[in-house]
Design a protein that fits this description.
This protein has four helices and nine strands, in the order E-E-E-H-H-E-E-H-H-E-E-E-E. The chain has 162 residues and is α+β, with helices and mostly antiparallel strands.
Length: 162
């Protein structure tokens, strides 16, 4: 589980600036759940009641810093929880599309498992965001790259790398 502060969020069509201290930035698409009610130790069968919307996201990682932290046996915080490290696309209400449909079931765990796991460790509250990565390795991005995700021809996420 990864905890990110609100300074990590990048909303709208704002550009993502590559942070100082990294020479290799990667990105993985993810699904973000917006928590709609207070909960603790939620069973997976009830988890769908605890989020009201989903969004596609782009989760950025300083891959060189992650490798260094991993080889030294240290936490990855520096590599994954920097300012604007999670771009959030347009919110989609649950009644329009499920989280699993967004990325064709390529998530590392189901939304229900994610909520159950998070709520076991801490109380989840309205407005919290839980993000679930795809089961694919990050791809490298460079300055001037554009990350764009569309669903049915409609743009849901746009982010330019600066």
């Amino acid at each position: 589980m990864v905890l990110k502060g609100d300074s990590c969020l990048l909303n709208g069509r704002k550009p993502m600036f590559i942070p100082d201290g990294t020479s290799e930035l990667g990105v993985t698409e993810c699904v973000i759940l917006r928590v709609s009610r207070l909960g603790k130790e939620i069973a997976p069968k009830f988890a769908s009641r605890y989020y009201d919307a989903v969004a596609l996201g782009a989760d950025f990682i300083a891959m060189d810093l992650a490798r260094k932290a991993q080889s030294e046996g240290k936490p990855w915080t520096e590599a994954i929880a920097f300012d604007y490290s999670l771009a959030i696309g347009e919110w989609i209400n649950n009644d329009e599309m499920s989280a699993a449909e967004l990325l064709n079931d390529e998530l590392i765990i189901s939304p229900e498992e994610a909520i159950a796991k998070a709520s076991k460790l801490m109380t989840i509250r309205q407005g919290d965001l839980i993000y679930i990565q795809r089961a694919v390795a990050p791809r490298k991005v460079e300055k001037e790259d554009i990350i764009r995700i569309e669903i049915d021809g409609e743009e849901k996420l746009y982010c330019k790398i600066k």
